[in-house]
Amino acid sequence: MPIQVGQQAPDFTLMDSDSNKVTLSEQRGKNVLLLFYPLAFTSVCTKELCATRDNIAFYNSMNAQVYGISVDSLFAQGKFKEEQKINFPLLSDFNKKASRAYEAIYEHWFNDMDGVSKRSAFVIDKEGIVRYAEVLENAGDIPDFNAIQTCLETINQ
């Protein structure tokens, strides 16, 4: 069953590109924006994450920690983060546990690439409750960042 607004966010522990463990439940007390994306270095993923990078002041003002998540290795994530000057953590879901928990995974994708994260966005509030959930079937689409920002403004009041 897809993740529903109002439910407790599935917990996970993933490695960031600096080899630090990040556990979602340890982020309680701040809002969290999870951005699942298919693959580092691809055009739409780069566009999405760079737009988020360029708007990080908004997310900071909303007390929101942003995490980018893909099935890329932490080493690929690190290189992507460095090259694109991404100013928020990128997490490696190499084993696909978080992508599956959030039902944000293409089990079968193009060019016989199986188990790739679907482009998705989840806003999780300070208590760990999902307040926004968007899972996109078309990897060429971008999450509705206006709706995400409105959600963060609403839960931050």
Q: What does this protein look like?
A:
This protein is of the alpha+beta class and 157 residues long. The protein has one domain (13-142): 3-Layer(aba) Sandwich (Glutaredoxin), CATH 3.40.30.10. Helices cover 29% and strands 24% of the residues. It has helices at residues 43-54, 56-61, 74-84, 97-101, 145-155; strands spanning 13-16, 21-23, 31-36, 64-70, 90-92, 105-106, 116-117, 120-124, 130-135. The strands form two sheets. The chain has a seven-stranded mixed sheet. Strands 6-7 form a two-stranded antiparallel sheet. The protein starts with 12 loop residues before the first strand and ends with a helix.
- Helix and strand string, N-terminal first? EEEHHEHEHEEEEH
Q: Low-confidence spans: pLDDT under 50, at least 5 residues?
A: none
Multimeric state = single chain
Through-space gap between termini: 30 Å
CATH class annotation: Alpha Beta
What does the main sheet amount to?
Answer: 7 strands, mixed
Strand line-up of the largest beta sheet? 2-1-5-4-3-8-9
Tally of discrete structural domains: 1
CATH topology: Glutaredoxin
Structural class, from helix and strand content?
A: alpha+beta
- Helix share, percent: 25-40%
Give the count of helical stretches.
5
Judging from the principal axes of the Cα atoms, what is the shape? globular
Strand residue content:
15-25%
User: So, the CATH homologous superfamily?
Assistant: Glutaredoxin
User: How many whole angstroms does the radius of gyration measure?
Assistant: 14 Å
Count all strands and give the number: 9
CATH architecture classification name = 3-Layer(aba) Sandwich
What average pLDDT do the residues reach? 94
